[in-house]
Amino acid sequence: MPVRDWVSTSAGRPTQLQGFDTTLVWVVVALMAWSLLMVYSASIALPDSPRFAKYQPTHFLTRHCIAIGVAVVAALVTVQVPVQTWERVAPWVFVTALVLLVAVLVPGVGKVVNGARRWIPLGVMNFQPSELAKFGIALYAANYMMRRMEARENFVRAVRPMAIALAFIGLLLLAEPDMGAFIVIAAIAMGILFLGGVNGRMFLLSVAILLGAFVLMISFSEFRRERIFAYLNPWDEKYAAGKAYQLTHSLIAFGRGEWFGQGLGSSVEKLHYLPEAHTDFLLAVIGEELGLVGVVVAIGAFFWLTRRCFLIGRQAIALDRVFAGLYAQGIGIWIGGQAFINMGVNLGALPTKGLTLPLMSFGGSAVLMNCIALAVVLRIDLENRQMMKGGRS
Questions:
Q1: Which residues are CB-contacts of 159 (< 8 A; sequence separation ≥ 6)?
Q2: pLDDT digits (tens, 9 = 90+) for 289-348
Q3: What residue ranges do the domains of the chain occupy?
Q4: Quick one: which of 41, 105, 126, 218 has the most CB atoms within 10 Å?
Q5: How many whole angstroms separate alpha carbon 186 and alpha carbon 192?
Q6: Cβ distance 287 to 295 under 8 Å?
Q7: Rounded to 5 degrees, what are φ and ψ at 148?
Q8: Rounded to a whole number, what is the largest CA-CA distance in the chain?
Q9: How far apart (Å, rounded) are the C-alpha atoms in residues 306 and 328?
């Protein structure tokens, strides 16, 4: 249950204060409520397509409601768990994520969608192990840096074990393939290493090696090279109807939206022109229907959420709670970094990647893990407040 803090007023009467960050909760709730409107708007016309002919117009809305319901229940349970417990089980959560990443590649276990084997069917939803891996790497990297504080200046002791773990995850994710998830996981791990105080030159060397690995992956993959070329020149006839098809129609959607949009439900691009409008390109539908104003509100909400995670993390570190602080900042990197990449892809600022908009895009396991991760951050803030009032975390 939430901690109840009390302070005395000038009249000598106690005044009750909230023991948790209500603004953080309401921002998350508002984003998920907004997502219900936008997912419904973006998916309502999908049954007109032969691919989704058997679905009802409310199919994706219903599944998204179920996913949000499961996520909220999971978050309410998670926020009851002490941060010390997460610190203790961090390596096991990470190992579980690795096991599931291996399992999803097994024929008969993993589900193939659009040529990618990324999901494990669970009836209520299709679970994506890479989402658990993002949560797991944040826990593991924070726990790892706390245990390796004395070795921050030694490259072999401080960086090599994490590099091996990232390399293993990378191989599994590229086999799915899911390069977008690998980029986010690598960003979380490297960000926590940097915030944990790893030697600057060692950090830059690690980043250079990682960037080199990405360049090699693109160089040896014709499919990825074509995506880069399409991103650089999306209106070329060679790419406009092929690799840049999603990007060009996303840009058209933003162009139609102008300042205030065409109105909720009035998007034309969602009518089978823009593929995956309810998942990866939900922001384009927001831009077309709600205009620049809607896009700016979304950007502002994710900026605030990311900044709040970092502030909670910095506060925890100031209270000598290193694991909690690094974890909270790692979640800030996850939410902010993935939102930045998704928005950049939608706006044509980054090459097309299969990454959803956190808390908003359709996708059960993504919403579930986002809520669980943020529930742990809320618990960290709750314990911070309790410690500052002289209590015990």
A1: 193, 198, 202, 206
A2: 999 999 999 999 999 999 999 999 999 999 999 999 999 999 999 999 999 999 999 998
A3: 22-89+142-388
A4: 41
A5: 10
A6: yes
A7: -105, 25
A8: 75
A9: 10
